[in-house]
């Protein structure tokens, strides 16, 4: 195993949602605070950026080569990287206090996206599910929705509430899309990082970026921490598996939250980092429509 390395010094304010396209060997990610979607081809080195009019929290690739994305004002699709946005669902929450944050597709191709409630004085962050033009609310008990991921057997859904340091697990019925039996998977002690975005490898281990914890942790399906991987950024935000063999762990990071002293210590904060790992990742599911 190699050390964590910076593969793209993006200087992003808040890089999030790294997403690997195995068909083109491209890593996509967003910079939420800059309203941007990035595309970085790891073979050619080409780096493209698209800027929107509002925050893009998360996205997934679609079966037809396009995108579905969750913005502050709702969910939109677009046919390719530069195509016009097409409204899929308009937000029914208060956009002054709430926006979409973390999400991905389930094994059946539904798009799931969670919101964050900025005042953090009530558990109003919700987890929404989108399929065939319809939406339903699966859970509403978080301050900041994060860490959404699925087990290889497709029977378990993970979901974290970052400010409260908890990762939950649900029984998930991929046929119906129902999430039931919510319980605590792991709870982290205060003051040493909190669980942000995550991914599950092909062996069922849950990899979580610990925001303000300067590391990524690998957690067994039973909830035991198996390994910790430090990186030169205080605020890792999410992880994604990629590379030709799906054994590269990409890590997005935040720059805006770093203090001047932290930026002096970690000048590449806001970049995309990578680590060669032994566990193979799962190929990302795509939106079916």
TrEMBL record:
<dbReference type="GO" id="GO:0004341">
    <property type="term" value="F:gluconolactonase activity"/>
</dbReference>
<keyword id="KW-0862">Zinc</keyword>
<feature type="binding site">
    <location>
        <position position="16"/>
    </location>
    <ligand>
        <name>a divalent metal cation</name>
    </ligand>
</feature>
<comment type="similarity">
    <text>Belongs to the SMP-30/CGR1 family.</text>
</comment>
<dbReference type="Pfam" id="PF08450">
    <property type="entry name" value="SGL"/>
</dbReference>
<feature type="binding site">
    <location>
        <position position="101"/>
    </location>
    <ligand>
        <name>substrate</name>
    </ligand>
</feature>
<dbReference type="GO" id="GO:0005509">
    <property type="term" value="F:calcium ion binding"/>
</dbReference>
<dbReference type="InterPro" id="IPR005511">
    <property type="entry name" value="SMP-30"/>
</dbReference>
<feature type="active site" description="Proton donor/acceptor">
    <location>
        <position position="196"/>
    </location>
</feature>
<keyword id="KW-0479">Metal-binding</keyword>
<feature type="binding site">
    <location>
        <position position="99"/>
    </location>
    <ligand>
        <name>substrate</name>
    </ligand>
</feature>
<feature type="binding site">
    <location>
        <position position="196"/>
    </location>
    <ligand>
        <name>a divalent metal cation</name>
    </ligand>
</feature>
<dbReference type="InterPro" id="IPR011042">
    <property type="entry name" value="6-blade_b-propeller_TolB-like"/>
</dbReference>
<dbReference type="GO" id="GO:0019853">
    <property type="term" value="P:L-ascorbic acid biosynthetic process"/>
</dbReference>
<protein>
    <submittedName>
        <fullName>Sugar lactone lactonase YvrE</fullName>
    </submittedName>
</protein>
<feature type="binding site">
    <location>
        <position position="146"/>
    </location>
    <ligand>
        <name>a divalent metal cation</name>
    </ligand>
</feature>
<dbReference type="InterPro" id="IPR013658">
    <property type="entry name" value="SGL"/>
</dbReference>
<feature type="domain" description="SMP-30/Gluconolactonase/LRE-like region">
    <location>
        <begin position="14"/>
        <end position="254"/>
    </location>
</feature>
